[in-house]
Write a structure and sequence with these properties.
By secondary structure, this protein is an alpha+beta fold. It has helices at about 5-15, 20-35, 85; strands spanning about 40-45, 50-55, 60, 70, 75-80. The chain has two domains: about 1-40; about 40-90, Irregular (HU Protein, Chain A), CATH 4.10.520.10. Helix 1 packs across helix 2.
Length: about 110
């Protein structure tokens, strides 16, 4: 799934024009990016949690040449799925297990 798919689903489920849905999706992603860049935790109940964690310095290998490469210390983003997402059992086609949006048409 790509961002355009998300925009199309938001537009279809809410009945808003695709242009407005695109603006809403862009605003959401922009806000999430800014929060993560500040090192903030993002908790979306029923979906999961995004957390910024420190990454240790280490040594890796170039898979093509086998040459050792220094990996600098930094930060990485981790996602921990919520209970509802974990209990979903990989059934991606069923709308019955998805939460209903207000005034949404399916």
């Amino acid at each position: 799934m790509i961002k355009l798919d998300i925009v199309n689903r938001v537009a279809d489920r809410t009945g808003v024009p695709k242009m407005k849905a695109e603006q809403a999706v862009e605003a959401l992603f922009h806000s999430m990016k800014e929060a993560l860049m500040r090192g903030e935790r993002i908790e979306l109940r029923g979906f999961g949690v995004f957390v910024v964690k420190p990454r240790k310095r280490g040594v890796g290998r170039n898979p093509r040449t086998g040459e050792e490469v220094a990996i600098p210390q930094g930060k990485t983003i981790r996602f921990k799925p919520g209970k509802e997402l974990q209990a979903h059992d990989g059934d991606t086609e069923s709308n019955e297990s998805l939460p209903r949006l207000p005034d949404a048409t399916y």
